[in-house]
Design goal:
Blueprint: H1 3-7, H2 11-19, H3 23-32, H4 47-53, H5 58-71, E1 77-83, E2 90-96, H6 106-115, H7 119-124, E3 135-138, E4 149-153, H8 156-161, E5 176-180, E6 183-184, H9 201-209, E7 212-214, H10 218-222, H11 229-235
Antiparallel strand pairs: 1-2, 1-5, 1-6, 2-3, 3-4, 5-7
Length: about 240
């Protein structure tokens, strides 16, 4: 079955997804979307709703990024970064791409992908190999930290730990405590999560239920040094201000 039919993407969405054919381009696109301050009610917009309403918070941005990655042959993987109860969790879309222009075994992999892809996906496929490669992340945030990560991390834990020192409250308390294994959103394909016109709370709830791996023991938590004042000031920088459209 043509994947674009299965996903229910319209022509405008297909054209957009085709253009955003690298993680960096996806991140650049997310930067143009205003932050979702959830005025009036809490939301968990689907990728289609994000494009319609032109706003997204971290979970919504992660799901949109995952949807576009899926269009280009990647698994749509989302990881939940769980914080101390005083802070908020953060969601990221993770990916693996070999930075080299070519690698052994790419021809069979590319052939397999294209044989099961739509013409639109085939046109957008970059031809890079992501088998046995490094982790990177796409992230939607309103702050100067917790942002995009280049695919240079040897393990998921290494990627997650790159967020640790900048994950703190206004009093400098460092709050990142655990992370989930990558959740493949393809498990929700039968619910048409990419093009749904209703909020995807079931994905948010699932992400909260899956096992999380702790990154610190009690002794380590007790001995954490607080962020410096200059770090706290830098952490307060934002792209979009409340009240702006």
């Amino acid at each position: 079955m043509n994947n674009t039919i299965m996903y229910g993407l319209n022509k405008e969405e297909i054209k957009l997804f085709q253009r955003l054919n690298t993680p960096a381009k996806i991140q650049d696109f997310l930067e143009q979307i205003p932050i979702n301050f959830e005025r009036g009610r809490q939301t968990c917009y689907s990728p289609r709703q994000v494009l319609k309403y032109r706003r997204a918070h971290c979970m919504e941005g992660a799901m949109l990024a995952a949807a576009i990655l899926k269009f280009h042959g990647h698994k749509p993987l989302v990881v939940d970064l769980r914080a101390h109860k005083r802070d908020r969790n953060h969601a990221i879309a993770v990916f693996k791409i070999n930075p080299a222009p070519s690698c052994r075994g790419i021809a069979p992999r590319r052939k397999a992908i294209l044989s099961h892809s739509s013409p639109q996906q085939a046109a957008g496929y970059s031809g890079r190999c992501w088998i046995n490669s490094e982790w990177g992340a796409i992230s939607k945030t309103n702050h100067a930290v917790l942002r995009y990560r280049e695919p240079v991390y040897n393990s998921l834990r290494e990627l997650v730990m790159s967020y640790f020192h900048e994950y703190f409250l206004n009093d400098g308390k460092k709050t990142l405590r655990s992370y989930s294994e990558p959740v493949d959103l393809s498990r929700f394909d039968t619910k048409n999560w990419i093009t749904s016109d209703t909020d995807l709370w079931y994905i948010d709830e699932y992400l909260n239920r899956v096992p999380h791996t702790s990154i610190l023991n009690k002794k380590q938590v007790a001995s954490l040094r607080r962020a410096d004042k200059i770090e706290i000031r830098a952490g307060k920088l934002t792209t979009f201000k409340r009240g702006s459209k």
